[in-house]
Amino acid sequence: MSRLLLALLVSLLPLQAQETLFRQVADTKTDTHIEATALFSHPSLGGYHPVRVTIVNNQKIPHRIFLNFSDSTNFRDGITASSNFSYLAPPEKTVVADILVPLAVQNGDHNYPNFTVKLSGSMGNTQGTANSIFSPNSPCVLLSDSLYGPNGSSLDSEATSRGYSGHRGSRGGFSSKFDPKRLPDDWRAFSGFDTIMLTETDWADVPPGPRNAITSWVRLGGQLVVYSSGNPGPASLGLPEDPGFGEIQIQSIATDLRLNAGDTVNLAYNKRSTKHRLAAITSDFDSNWPLQKAFGEKSFNYILFVLILLAFGILVGPVNLFVFAKSGRRHRLFVTTPLISIGTSLILIALIVFEDGFGGKGTRITLMEVRPDGNQNAAFIQQEQFSRSGVMTSPSFTVETPALVAQTPLAKSRWARFTSFGASGNYDLQPTAGGVFASGNWFQSRSEQGQLVTAVLPTRGRIEATNDPGTIVSTFDFPIETILYRDPSGQWHRGENIAKGKPAKLTAVDPTMVQPLLNDTAKRFTDRNQAFLRRVSDRNDSYIAFAKQAAAIETHPGIDWLSDTVITGPIAR
Question: Can you say how many angstroms the Cα of residue 429 is from the centroid of all Cα atoms in its chain?
Fold first, then answer.
């Protein structure tokens, strides 16, 4: 009887994998209602939170509804991300929509996570909340229902015993859970997570769209752990043998699906070849960021501003009192004082514009893994960018491709507005049909800012082998200054000035001539992207190319960007 009861409880677990944010009944007689359900039980710390909206309109009138989401890192002076969605439910129709809700940009100071959704419109008003259980110093893990049932409690306890107790005032835990059959098919839904753990049977239940999304997430640096009672290889599971920047691990498990809590937590927390995402964002950029150091510091002309203010004080004081509005003409003070103030303000504004200009300048470096194999034809992009802005007429911008844009905390300075020591403001992201619209405090006037942009782009660009040994052809739309190719035997080759469509002969070189260039290139990235580059540098029959004219992920058009791109990938045959 106890075994039967346990089996019944396990069978009900998939119903709990999602988190119902709210269910609003507009009409009980016709069961006209709207329901918002988070596809993961708890949101990650950054990225997106996937939500499924179901509108059942059994009435003979249309309904217009509005959803307003807000995620913040503090109840008071924190960082906030807001987004809005609206839907029209035709008469006697059911509307189902999967949306990605942007989560607040993280800067390491997360005390009171607060995810809320508010419903308004013709179906009534209500709201719902969700909480994150993750600690800023631990990875964000997704665990399938089948693994969570017998292991969730012990894994939570193990994580808590190691000091990963979540946010202040919240219950900590090891993982968020999910139903493999109800997963989103957009890689951005997984972008805030570092590890996904599921069984071989779970993986078989994942639909094709979400499978492709998870594979893309892995190639961008995710850790996928598949538990199996057998010994399958990645190919037999429909997974790539070469995971790009990420990791695919196949682990043994008993038929009862019991895991060793300590080993499992170690696997997600410690046995990773790279930092987890939030640790990288909060620690890789705030000091000794190579890109920021190469850009150089900006000095502030204190003396000139002090002289102007001193002149203002003299004019508005003694000169104004004893020359412009001397005794018997004091009434002129009502005119001269505002004029002097306005004139000084205009001079200060002109000086700021002259010194800083409109818009700004920035530098960005992109690590791009191009995969023409497996019918992917996609580029997996990690882009670091640093900029210094002058006078910004508009802080808003649009990214014309599906991407994850994260503001990174900088070292504390008079120019940095977003630091690990504290930050506040609105960093809103509004998903659009083909990308995302950003508004708020992303690019403020007279400030320095850094961002990490992650994206997946379709591309037909590749490096192809030819029938002539040692000769390659590039189909990229931009020239490649230098290419390093490691052949199937491990021998390095080098080529220069590779133009599109023109065969280029490569020359064999000694590894001692390659390694210094690879080391110098890696040092231009932050630690996590350095690890990604070093991982793919060890592959045979693959290349590393350098291009200054490759297209980058465009953010604010008012910034004059200087770009550099490092391209990696296998040779297409």
Answer: 11
Residues 248 and 312 in one domain: no
The neighbouring-strand residues paired with 404 are: 454
What CATH number does residue 279 fall under? Answer: 3.40.50
526 and 495 together in one domain:
yes
Could you tell me the two tokens for 488?
């199937």
519 lies in the same domain as 381: yes
Token pair for residue 132?
């994150």
Task: Please indicate, yes or no, whether residues 91 and 161 belong to a single structural domain of this protein.
Answer: no
Strands (E), 390-424: 397-399, 403-408
- Indicate whether 148 and 242 sit together in one domain: yes
Residue 279 lies in a domain: yes
104 within 8 A of 73, measured Cβ to Cβ: yes
Domain count, the chain: 4
Query: Under DSSP, is residue 212 helix (H, G, I), strand (E, B) or coil?
Result: helix
Tell me if 79 is assigned to some domain: yes
CA distances from 24 to 58, 128, 218, 563 (A): 14, 10, 37, 49
Q: Does any domain span residue 288?
A: no
Rounded Cα gap, residues 184 and 115, in angstroms: 19
Do 96 and 159 sit in the same domain of this protein?
no
Question: How many angstroms separate the CA atoms of 424 and 99, rounded?
Answer: 26
Along the 573 residues of the chain, how does pLDDT read in single tens digits? 344 333 334 434 444 567 899 999 999 999 999 999 999 999 999 999 999 999 999 999 999 999 999 998 765 557 889 999 999 999 999 999 999 999 987 776 544 558 999 999 999 999 999 988 888 888 999 999 999 999 999 999 998 887 765 554 455 789 999 999 999 999 999 999 999 999 999 999 999 999 999 999 999 999 999 999 888 889 999 999 999 999 999 999 999 999 999 999 999 988 888 889 988 998 899 888 999 998 887 766 667 667 777 877 777 778 767 777 777 777 777 778 888 788 778 877 776 666 666 779 999 999 999 999 877 899 999 999 999 998 888 889 999 999 999 999 998 888 888 887 777 788 999 998 889 999 999 999 889 999 999 999 999 999 999 988 889 999 999 999 999 999 999 999 999 999 999 999 999 999 999 999 999 999 999 999 999 999 999 899 999 999 999 989 999 999 999 999 999 999 998
* Domain span including residue 374: 358-395+443-573
